[in-house]
Amino acid sequence: MANLTQIELQNLKHLIEKQGIAYQKLNTYASQAVDPQIKQMFTKSAQDALNTKQKLMSFLNN
Hints:
Blueprint: H1 6-32, H2 36-60
Helix pairs in contact: 1-2
């Protein structure tokens, strides 16, 4: 993979931060949900956000 420019690196860090925030919020929503289907939806979405964050972070290690 080619080296990232400073702008690309800043954008990547911003996306990683936003996915982390989404993960935290969705986990909070899941913990407060009463309906099992809604709880499951928020839990899955939180896991998806975490997976995306981890994938984005892998670009920093290359």
